[in-house]
Amino acid sequence: MPSIAKDTQLQTVITTFETSPGSCSDLLDDLQAAYDQFISHQPGFIAAALHVNDAQTRVVNYSQWTRREDFQAMLRSDEMRRRNRKINELCRSFEPVMIDVVKTYDPE
């Protein structure tokens, strides 16, 4: 399960996919297969979550990795490059962004 906290040394990655309602289910199927069959087995993988808006035009992926280099190695692998070519056909654009958690808020 992803953990959102400021004082962590983890690499957080948010990827936004712009898609269409007609392609959203196929995109989600491919992303789930990528996590089930490949990504979740890579060194440094901690957790991920997939989100979709109600219009089915945006998919957001939140993932965490032990180190930035672990995420980059997965992304550059032949397997993931092959999968990303197929994923790219199902969306207008997608962009992974490596981020740092600045602040978290909990109910008082």
TrEMBL record:
Residue ranges of every copy of the ABM domain listed in the record: 11-102
Domain of life: Bacteria
Pfam families for this protein: ABM (PF03992)
Signal peptide: none
PROSITE patterns assigned: ABM
Keyword rRNA-binding listed: no
GO molecular function (one): monooxygenase activity
InterPro entries the UniProt entry points to: ABM_dom, Dimeric_a/b-barrel
Keyword annotations of the record: Monooxygenase, Oxidoreductase
Protein name in UniProt: Antibiotic biosynthesis monooxygenase domain protein
Source organism (scientific name): Roseicyclus elongatus DSM 19469
